[in-house]
Amino acid sequence: MQLVDETALDELALGAAVLGTGGGGDPYIGKIMSRQAIRDYGPIQMLSLDELADEDLVVPSAMMGAPTVMVEKMPSGDDVLNAFETISRYLNQPIRATMSIEAGGLNSVVPLYLAARLQIPLVDCDGMGRAFPELQMVTHTLHGLSATPMAMSDERGNTLLLETIDNLWTETFARSITIDMGATALIALYPATVAQLKECAIHGTMSRAREIGRIIMNARRQEANPVDSVRAALDGFLVFEGKVSDVERRTEGGFARGDAYMEGIHEYEGKRLRLSFQNEHLAARIDDQFIVTVPDLIAVLDAESAEPITTEGLRYGFRVAVIAFPCAAQWRTEAGIELVGPRYFGYDVDYIPVEERLGS
Amino acid sequence: MRIGIDVGGTNTDIVLMEGREVRAWYKTPTTADVTAGIINSLRHIIDEVSLDPASLDGVMIGTTHFTNAVVERRHLQETACLRLGLPATVCLPPMVDWPDDLRDVVGNHYFLAHGGHEFDGRVISPFDESEIRGIAEQIRDRGISAVAISSVFSPVNTEFEVRAGEIVADVIPDANVTLSSEIGRIGLLERENAAIMNGCLRTLALRTIAGFRAALEQMAIEAPFFISQNDGTLMNAEFAADYPVLTFASGPTNSMRGAAFLSGLRDAIVVDVGGTTTDIGVLQQGFPRVAALAVDIGGVRTNFRMPDTYNIGLGGGSLVQSEPIAVGPRSVGYEITDRALIFGGEEMTASDVMVATGKVDIGDRSRVTQITADFAQNVEGHMLEMVTNAVDRMKTSATPVPVIVVGGGSILLQEEIPGSSEMLKPPHFAVANAIGAAIAQVGGECDRIFSLEGSTRDEVLDQAKDEARQRAIAAGATSDSIEIVDVEEVPLAYLPGNAIRIAVKAVGDLEGA
Predict the structure, then answer these.
(1) How many whole angstroms separate alpha carbon B36 and alpha carbon B59?
(2) Which domains does chain A have, with CATH numbers?
(3) A239 to chain B, closest Cα gap in Å
(4) Are B339 and B390 found together in one domain?
(5) Of A175, A318, B220, B230, which is the most buried if we count CB atoms within 10 A?
(6) ipTM
(7) What is the per-residue pLDDT across A329-346, written as a single tens digit (0 to 9) for each?
(8) Is the minimum CB–CB distance between B487 and chain A shorter than 8 Å?
(9) Cβ(A115)–Cβ(A109) below 8 Å
(10) pTM here?
(11) How many CA atoms lie less than 13 Å away from B471 in the CB half-sphere?
């Protein structure tokens, strides 16, 4: 068991933003929400799956919609609770704990708000080990677990409950309901028992995020190189160092898609990196050669402070380090690659694990 | 003719400009009584060129007075914040992320009420007049007259803030009301923070602006006067008394705009070497490149458009160490004229080393003879490398760009900076700030979310540009001088329906300039 206090929250949010690979929006709002809840209700218990009983029910909570709207219309707090408690009522059983559906940005910290406010445990796992843009892109899907019953709440007190035939339909309906709710909704979904999560979830994601955050903060304090420290801790690879020279953005199918181009510096002088994203970073090419793709993780960090940069914050002129590191083993199965591999996102290239591409 | 005045924490600088020519300038220590300092410098300039005050078209003043008041927690008045948006936003009340000491000074008076809008203009909950009236009465009963009002998505629709402001003014006769939509952009907490800081500065602003006016009257200057804003444009004095928060960070902007003017360049890197630090910024089309990240003022998060500057601890007063060679960040600062070797002091500063190279001749040269030529050369190389790295960090491509060097410490840079196409040290570089104030234009902004349903991208872009243009005209710009200087569009992630956020900035010349 770990206790998540204000310091741990800062570390966790920073580390989760690295695992978030550019997606999930600015964690600022979620972080101060959780911080305030920790101040008001006390620190959060973080438990590993082994510390819970197999039959315990766990329901993740999250925010769906546009992070750009979230910075203006913040949640009421009750909306987070409403979605969660609606699932409990519908299933007619108590929920033992909550968890993050993904690591990254806002959604890694929204469950902390709920956990602090209800004083229930947060489970040290998630469904991605990173962030992905679509709701069905979780390891739960690989194990045939349904996203529904899923509850969606707005700040007015409306709650909708969804039962769908598969997780893709859940994504479709939930997207349009989110718009009607004012472009943000608080959601609870993928209810599962601890026994099921032991099979399907990615274990230890939250403590991993916290560890990454702690490593970066320590390196900054000791004036060591935080980029190198975090790369080493993740068994990752430095892919590129350079300056952002252009960012092309377009809205397609409700997602922020685009490409960022970077001109190399130091040992990458003369090279050009093209980074493609759909909310999260999906693929990186150097001089038109793919060097890393989903489901492996690509993080863009400020070259000096190792502060993770979101796709929305990516700007002309930023000096960055790009690091890549291996995804969870579950994503490297045939079904995993089909669900979140490069071809799903429209890249005509086979998935090759990052350590095979760059390990030599 | 125009007069530009920069009232800084240390110095008050003044310039007299006729067209593009600097007719006279003067630098004097800032006095505790700001008015007296301004009168001194005005008198000096008027006497120097036998100026007829009637020939002045305008006086432009840049000041760090209000920023310093917040940073130092001085002269701030208790302010109430009224936020409309219930039932949304409850979990993050106003001032939630403020430093405790500042929140205490301002009083932590906040009230949440119904109201607010969605991103597409729908109402979150209806405006409740009796609810607002009740809150206004509570504020009045606490003896508070400064009120900041915020409403969710007020940049999209200002109606609720305006109506709430009218009710507050009706209930509290001497109320001074700040509406968040008049000073900030999308981002409720940041915009609200700015509105509250504005509220707590209003009394100080009235007093300060009255002091400026008294100084001008005493010198028989009847020309209109203006105050610089953070984005490098001007506001008239009456407006500034209502919106003091808009002066935050006008200093670096004025200095960069002054550098652009003095050099005649519109795209360049500006290196401003002071006594303790060097600030490096980027000019794009004659305006500073704006920082992308949230900017803290006195520990409070804001989303003002601030110049994107990078600072290193190198200045004329930086202390030099020999084994290994290191310069700064410790500095003797403004005490350089007592503590540097060349001025009879005991500390080896960056300026001493430059005198030892023989390339610079200030102070008493005989006091640095013990510094060897080798050592001086190594230290100079080290400082050049510090600046080169910082300039490189701010550049957007490997292509060499012009570098403009300004500021009192610019004697430290005697050699061309690698990666620059040319290095300019324009005349009057020491008063670039005041010149930046004197040449400032007026501007208008539009920043909100547009829906692309039923209209093309070009149509909404034109609409945004037109709104920005109208605001520039309302601020006093002549319509034929208006230029669109910045367009930024951000598609909103995770949303179908093609919503897009567009921010446009327009600037133009003042009437009569």
Answers:
(1) 16
(2) 2-205 (3.40.1610.10), 226-358 (2.40.390.10)
(3) 19
(4) yes
(5) B230
(6) 0.87
(7) 999 999 999 999 999 999
(8) no
(9) no
(10) 0.85
(11) 21
